[in-house]
């Protein structure tokens, strides 16, 4: 199994993440547009007025920021207090992942790389917190992998896009193989597999990470 | 080269669907991700692709018609950026499908039902253009193999069809592995779902849940849009 090769590249995941909504404070108007609003295919964004916060997709925020046309407001989940809480809960509850945006790693990475000023003086604090949240979650995923022991369906609520993509090969490889082995065991004569004791899932049918 | 072989969209299928403005982007994105993750070729979303193509063309016209004045430069670049993003998504969707079509070309042809009165054969999940592509692809591939390999083999071994028919399970025909495990997200509450034929293993699918599950077990749920792949 190609465990090392991810299905999506990290660039592609960033591309997907760029459709997430984020608030910006523009410093311009759009005289050419009616109502200072951009009529895009994905929806209408605006009105863009100086010092009036407005919600736009991340790609637009990054593009405007690059042109020095706006200030990006840090998303609520990247607040220091809430990140601290998430980190704590993430450590305390070994059986569950905390709800974070599906693309939290990509969003964080893009903001940290291209829009540092979003966080002002808190940049390093936020950066470190996100990093430690990521590490705690990664450790949990790895210990979760250890618990795979036979053909089963795994529930991984709140796992993020990047984490799914990273772990895909390992999960897939292990589970595919377990399933095949179970099939062989259930039907040694290669016929239709029928209800046989050996084909039933092992004692713990699903590892529940729970919500 | 690949996307060109799909020809021009049917312009007359354009519908008045203003309320769906927001979701077309989400839909093509999901269609692409589903296609990429699923082992088999999924049903072609002709309606979505045609509408999106039309919408892209309309938007391009709009951007073309914008003033050349510097004050609209910002506006123009935003529109253009979005256009490029959507074009990429659309192309990726089609490209991912074509990759699978090439991989499972023989299976596609096998599954296709012959058209009536000499019409082109149709396939339940492929578009007309994809079907045409797979036929041409198979012919070219077959010719190439014949020229370079089969021709040099001793008589008796030099026919692909004969080799293929030798085994009742058609083991020379690549087929997707439907027992592969996939990451899927539950879109709507579905309640208890049976995950194997015996009904020994079940799971409670609630909206927002994320599962790693055998593709075959959720194949029908995906078709009916209860779940999406991730």
TrEMBL record, chain A:
Q: Which organism is it from?
A: Symbiochloris irregularis
| Single GO cellular component term | GINS complex
Subcellular compartments: Nucleus
Subunit structure, per the record? Answer: Component of the GINS complex.
Task: Write down the superkingdom of origin.
Answer: Eukaryota
Annotated DNA replication complex GINS protein PSF2 N-terminal domain residues: 11-73
Q: Name one Pfam family in it.
A: PSF2_N
What protein is this chain from? DNA replication complex GINS protein PSF2
Keywords on record: DNA replication, Nucleus
Q: Where does this protein chiefly localize?
A: nucleus
Say if the entry is tagged with keyword Nucleus. yes
User: GO BP, one example?
Assistant: double-strand break repair via break-induced replication
Work out whether the entry's keyword set contains Acetylation: no
GINS subunit domain boundaries:
77-174
From TrEMBL, chain B:
InterPro entries associated with the record? GINS_A, GINS_bundle-like_dom_sf, GINS_Sld5, SLD5_C, Sld5_GINS_A
Q: Which domain of life is it from?
A: Eukaryota
**Keyword entries, A-Z:** Coiled coil, DNA replication, Nucleus
List where in the cell it is found.
Answer: Nucleus
Report the principal subcellular site.
nucleus
The GINS subunit domain covers 56-138
**Which sequence ranges are marked TM in the entry?**
none
Where do the coiled-coil regions begin and end? 42-69
For this UniProt entry, which residues form the secretion signal?
none
Instruction: Tell me where in this chain the DNA replication complex GINS protein SLD5 C-terminal domain is found.
Output: 176-224
Instruction: Please name the GO terms of the biological process aspect recorded for this protein, alphabetically.
Output: DNA-templated DNA replication; double-strand break repair via break-induced replication
Gene Ontology CC terms:
GINS complex
The free-text function statement in the UniProt record for this protein reads: The GINS complex plays an essential role in the initiation of DNA replication.
Say which family it is in. Belongs to the GINS4/SLD5 family.
Q: What is this protein called?
A: DNA replication complex GINS protein SLD5
Q: What is the lineage of its organism?
A: Eukaryota, Viridiplantae, Chlorophyta, core chlorophytes, Trebouxiophyceae
């Amino acid at each position: 199994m190609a465990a090392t090769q991810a299905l999506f590249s990290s660039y592609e995941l960033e591309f997907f993440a760029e459709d997430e909504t984020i608030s910006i404070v523009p410093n311009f108007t759009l005289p050419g547009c009616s109502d200072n609003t951009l009529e895009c295919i994905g929806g209408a964004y605006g009105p863009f007025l100086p010092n009036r916060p407005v919600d736009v997709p991340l790609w637009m925020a990054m593009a405007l920021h690059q042109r020095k046309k706006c200030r990006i407001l840090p998303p609520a989940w990247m607040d220091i207090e809430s990140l601290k809480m998430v980190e704590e809960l993430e450590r305390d509850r070994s059986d569950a992942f905390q709800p974070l945006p599906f693309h939290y790693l990509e969003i964080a990475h893009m903001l940290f790389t291209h829009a540092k000023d979003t966080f002002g003086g808190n940049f390093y604090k936020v950066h470190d917190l996100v990093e430690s949240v990521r590490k705690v979650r990664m450790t949990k995923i790895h210990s979760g992998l250890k618990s795979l022991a036979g053909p089963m369906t795994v529930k991984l609520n709140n796992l993020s896009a990047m984490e799914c993509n990273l772990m895909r090969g390992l999960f897939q490889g292990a589970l595919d193989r377990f399933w095949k082995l179970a099939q062989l065991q259930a039907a040694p004569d290669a016929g239709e597999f029928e209800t046989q004791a050996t084909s039933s899932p092992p004692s713990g049918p699903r590892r529940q990470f729970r919500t | 080269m690949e996307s060109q072989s799909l020809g021009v969209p049917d312009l007359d299928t354009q519908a008045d669907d203003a309320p769906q403005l927001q979701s077309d982007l989400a839909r093509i994105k999901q269609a692409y991700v589903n296609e990429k993750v699923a082992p088999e070729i999924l049903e072609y979303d002709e309606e979505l692709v045609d509408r999106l193509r039309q919408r892209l063309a309309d938007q391009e016209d709009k951007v073309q018609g914008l003033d050349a004045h510097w004050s609209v430069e910002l506006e123009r670049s935003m529109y253009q950026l979005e256009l490029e993003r959507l074009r990429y998504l659309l192309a990726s969707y089609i490209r991912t499908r074509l990759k699978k079509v090439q991989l499972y070309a023989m299976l596609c042809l096998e599954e296709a039902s012959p058209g009536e009165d000499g019409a082109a054969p149709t396939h339940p999940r492929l578009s007309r253009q994809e079907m045409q592509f797979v036929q041409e692809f198979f012919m070219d591939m077959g010719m190439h193999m014949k020229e370079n390999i089969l021709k040099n083999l001793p008589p008796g071994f030099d026919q692909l069809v004969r080799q293929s028919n030798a085994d009742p399970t058609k083991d020379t025909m690549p087929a997707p592995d439907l027992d592969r495990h996939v990451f899927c997200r539950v879109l709507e509450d579905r309640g208890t779902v049976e995950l194997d034929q015996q009904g020994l293993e079940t799971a409670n699918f609630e909206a927002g849940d994320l599962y790693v599950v055998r593709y075959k077990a959720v194949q029908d749920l995906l078709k009916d849009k209860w779940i999406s792949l991730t």
